[in-house]
Structures are given as C-alpha cells and as structure tokens.
Amino acid sequence: MPEVRIEGYQHVYQALCNPHLKQSLYDAGAVIMADTLLTLHGEAHTRRRHLALRVFQRDFARHYERAVFPATVARTLGHFHGRNPLDLVAFGHSVTMNLTADFAGIDRSGDPEETDRLLRLVQKFGEGATMVHSTRDPAVLTSEVRLALDEYERDFLQPSLERRQRLLAEFARGNSPEDRLPRDMLTILLRNEDRLELSTDVLSREIAFYLQAGSHSTANATVHAVDELLRWCNGLPGRRQALETDPLFLQRAVHEALRLHPASPVAWRRAVTPLTLPSGVAVTPDDLLVLDLAAANADQTVFGPDSERFNPYRELPARRVQPFGLTFGLGVHNCLGRDLDAGLVAQSDTQSDDHQFGTVAALVRIVLCDLGAINEPDDPPQRDSDSVRGNWRRFPVRVRFPQP
Hints:
The protein has 16 helices and 11 strands. By secondary structure, it is α+β, with helices and mostly antiparallel strands.
C-alpha cells in the first residue's frame, strides 16, 4: 500500500486535527483494540468519547493526584520495600496499573500476588496493542493475548461488573444515592448500555484498553524521564538540588522528557475519503499516512537548534506550542489522560502549592527526590528487544527506602 510520511511539526499538527483522517496504528492489534475508543471514528467515536469525558474531568485528575496517587504509591512501595536496586520498570508499572485500574473500574483486594497477576495480564495487553512495533511472531503474540483476556474476564472483569450491576440496581430502585456509585469507566458504560449497544466482547476490550493504555504509557514515560534527568544531573549537585527544591522546574523537565519520548514514535492515519492535505499532498483511503511524532517533536524551526537534546530550560516560541510537543496528540484522538499524566502547564504566575503537576512528575519526584535514586553501576539498564519503540525492559536504580 502507498505510504505517505509526514514529519514537520506544522504538517503533523494539521493532520492530527483533520477529522477526515481516522486512526489506523492499532489495526494489527485488533485482538485487544478492535472497536475500542481509540480505534473508533465518526459518530460512534464521538458518543463514546463524550461518555469517557464524564470520568476524565479536571477535578477527577486533581483528586487522583492529591488523594488516590499518594495512597497507591505508599502501598506499592511497601510491596517493593527492600528490593535494592529497585527495578524502576516493574515499580512504575505496578504503581500506574493500580491507578489505572481504579478509573477503569477493576476491583482488587490489594493482595500483592493479585496485583502481580493483574500487572502480568495488563502488560500482555500492552504487547498486543503495540503489535505493529513488536519483533515477535504475531500469531504467537495474538494467542497469548487471547489467553490473557480469558483470565482477566473471569477473575477481574466479571466480579467488578457484577458488583456495579448490583449498585446500579439499588440506585435505580431508589435505595442508594447516586454519589455511592463508583466514578469509573465501567460504571459509565454500564449506565449507558442501551445507547452504546456494546457487546460483551467490546466491553471487555474497552476496559482492557484503559488498563493497558494508562499503565503502559505512563510507566514508560516515567522511566524515560528518570533516565533523562539522571544523565542530565550526572553528578552535578546543583542540578539535582534544583529538581528537589523546585517542583515546577521538575515538572518542566518532565515535560521536556515527554517531548523527546512520545508513547508511540509515530501515529498512523487513513483518509476516509480522497482529500488534499494543507501541505498540498493528495491522499486516498488506500494510502497509509505515517505521522512522525518523534520528528515533529524535534522540529528545529519550533524547538530550536538543539531540539534533539534534553534541555529543561528550553524556551517555546509560541503559546500554542505545548512543552511536551505533540506527544499526547491533538484533535478527536488526543489523549484523554493528558491532564492526569502531565498535569497543567505552569504559567508565569503559577503557585506550586495549588498546582496540578501530573502523575508522571509526581512519580519522578518520588523516585529522584524522596528515594534519592541513582544509577546502579553494576547493573546497567536494558532496552526491550521485543519492541522497536525504544522502551526499557529493566531499569535498576539504587534508592534509600523510608523506614517502615
């Protein structure tokens, strides 16, 4: 099939905002992604996205950062206590999986073995969703994902679904107030079943999509940010001190790392009808449009001559350019969890006491400032050889655990 590659920041920006281009990056991962929010287009996508926005509101992100996140990190640290060096990949995935499970609507008992089992399943969902970038045999990986889905549906989704159905029935009978209902995606979808006409399989994949998308990308972003910051500090006490004493600067540094490491280096789109892009390129539904997010985020005309280098002091040329570039996308498929992950972009008059920093910056601050993480010299980090996305398989750091 003909491939059209789009690289410049402005051209990628315009393509992401074009409502006549539909998502196609996850076609290969249909076993987990078929008919989920990210792959829908048009009216079906609009209806489901509007429901999702009932959960992903600004007050929701703020509540999670200030109330749910600290408790989740504390529990997870207890599970990892004494593991030194600490594998930041495993730790990050465990924290973010639990956070994601809360807003997806998957109940857990808190048992460490149960957490590890759900994490294993969610990581397999992530492999399936990013199958287009996997170096493994697609047939083997698809079979593994199907087995993981069966286990997740039986042991996690079904009990969570049944509890919410009971709560909704009590609410419908007037025996329970609305504020007793869970605020999560599973509850929202169940309350709107008649409007969405979701099959059991689609409902299962939709919740699995939230589980893997939230935990997989957030954990990877955290590890990339820690890596960039450890190399930037490189034994310079003044830089480390700046991160520890200025949370707004730390968030700015995290945004810079997010710019350099989008969750996916590319976005794929297909035209729903023949059209001509603003760049003058004509495309048809048979063309595959490859939007190079990594290249757009390193466009020197936007981010300066050192655009490929990590620079937390970077100045942006215009208000419409976000410090994290196009990492969270734009248009109808922009990431719903952007404010949850990245927080709000600080302005000149922002006060740190009342600011929303985002879970990535909050987690990086815990790792670098509270735990004092440093690289483990005898155990270097290892890249994930099963993917071309450049993520880490292991990232050992030496930390100082708080006293239990």
